[in-house]
Amino acid sequence: MTVYITCLLTSCFPSLDTRRLKEVFLKLGIKEMDLNDGKQNGSQSYYIIAKYNEDFLIFFSEFLMPGLVDTHIHACQYPNAGLGYDRPLLGWLEEYTFPLEAKYSDLKFAKKVYDSVVRKTLDCGTTTACYFSTIHTNGSMVLVESIIEQGQRALVGKVNMNTNHPDYYGETTESSLKETQNFIDLLLNKKNDLVKPVITPRFAITCDMKLMKELASLAKKYDIHIQTHISENIKEISFVKELFPDQESYGSVYDSAGLLTNKTILAHGVHLSDEEIKLLADRKSAISHCPLSNSHLKSGICNVRKLLQNGVKVGLGTDISGGCSPSIIQVMQGALASSVHLCFCCDEESKELAYEGEYPLALDYQEVFYLATLGGAEALAMEDKIGNFKVGKDFDALLVSMKDSSSPVDIHMPYETKELIQKFMYLGDDRNIKKVFVSGRLVKSL
Ligand code: GUN
Ligand code: ZN
């Protein structure tokens, strides 16, 4: 595979000279190489073209890896991270989440929270995030401003909800559509290549069929993404059945509305039927796997292996504040752990296998690394731009260091690169992420 990176590598690795880099590559078995310190647009850059792995470039105990992709995060819920896990989904929304989201009519409050969630996620290595804001158009634009100022790549959705909402937090069908149109216009007028709108019906409980159909038309008209939630919690699914008695399943509610496209990201998908999984695969819609949220809100365990085997695109999501952590590193740890737990409780066959020492449902670190990077990019239909270091993609990257004494990872001996990567995934945190680049721009530097 070919790696082609154009970036200011010298700013990452000031001590590197070209000769040394060539030696390192040769040691790593990289045979074909064209390395020079040529200039591009007047800036000092190294071009590296190497037949190697698209996922990593390794320099001693530091490595460059593709940026992390968070395919599902409620920016507005950041103040509640770590709180309110004594209620399952529907009670949690009523008691903790809607009251918080209602506060975002206050733009000063919005600015404070949104600045900090964008800063925090960048520090944790999230170069691309797919955000929910709230129903407020102006508040959603405050989030857009924070993202643009700090240089993250993002999709941003103004939430839609016209039914089954509290009196103090909701919209009519007309205002929901008018404000969504307004939000799309405002955001597209920014003409920012990195930040785009995403149509965001909250879920089938809070949006009626008319609204969902109109939103699907808007998505089609502008050729933009769609995000929502699906089959997260058993009581939620029963309520959707009551609301849409003529529909075969939760998935077919969205399909009838025209909301399942190849640019649709559905969070959770914990309790999908085989038919629904096939439907999502046929429509090329993706699931955002949110293992921390699935645990904290006691929703269930998602069988990611089954989704992947059936051709459904999967990325990882923090789902702040259903999930407690803004860091995809922690979500990777959750994805690894929950996939092992599933082996012991999924069905009789899996249980028997697990007791015999076989764990076919468990994800390994390479698979979870993929979900956090290229898998996320595919889930967001952005794999032509991000996800790995393939020729022609944008440079969204993390410089990870394992040699810093303040890091949570102690290095006692020379580890192989794949061991460093495992250590980073299982016990690393944002202290190990020394630099973050989005589209070649340095957006974090320790
Ligand atoms: N379903 C509808 N809204 C939400 C939300 O804000 N968080 C989660 N986890 N699920 C939802
Ligand atoms: Zn969510």
TrEMBL record:
<comment type="function">
    <text>Catalyzes the hydrolytic deamination of guanine, producing xanthine and ammonia.</text>
</comment>
<dbReference type="GO" id="GO:0005829">
    <property type="term" value="C:cytosol"/>
</dbReference>
<keyword id="KW-0479">Metal-binding</keyword>
<dbReference type="GO" id="GO:0008270">
    <property type="term" value="F:zinc ion binding"/>
</dbReference>
<dbReference type="InterPro" id="IPR006680">
    <property type="entry name" value="Amidohydro-rel"/>
</dbReference>
<dbReference type="InterPro" id="IPR014311">
    <property type="entry name" value="Guanine_deaminase"/>
</dbReference>
<dbReference type="InterPro" id="IPR032466">
    <property type="entry name" value="Metal_Hydrolase"/>
</dbReference>
<comment type="pathway">
    <text>Purine metabolism; guanine degradation; xanthine from guanine: step 1/1.</text>
</comment>
<feature type="domain" description="Amidohydrolase-related">
    <location>
        <begin position="63"/>
        <end position="443"/>
    </location>
</feature>
<dbReference type="Pfam" id="PF01979">
    <property type="entry name" value="Amidohydro_1"/>
</dbReference>
<dbReference type="GO" id="GO:0006147">
    <property type="term" value="P:guanine catabolic process"/>
</dbReference>
<keyword id="KW-0862">Zinc</keyword>
<keyword id="KW-0378">Hydrolase</keyword>
<protein>
    <recommendedName>
        <fullName>Guanine deaminase</fullName>
        <ecNumber>3.5.4.3</ecNumber>
    </recommendedName>
</protein>
<dbReference type="InterPro" id="IPR051607">
    <property type="entry name" value="Metallo-dep_hydrolases"/>
</dbReference>
<dbReference type="GO" id="GO:0008892">
    <property type="term" value="F:guanine deaminase activity"/>
</dbReference>
<comment type="similarity">
    <text>Belongs to the metallo-dependent hydrolases superfamily. ATZ/TRZ family.</text>
</comment>
<dbReference type="InterPro" id="IPR011059">
    <property type="entry name" value="Metal-dep_hydrolase_composite"/>
</dbReference>
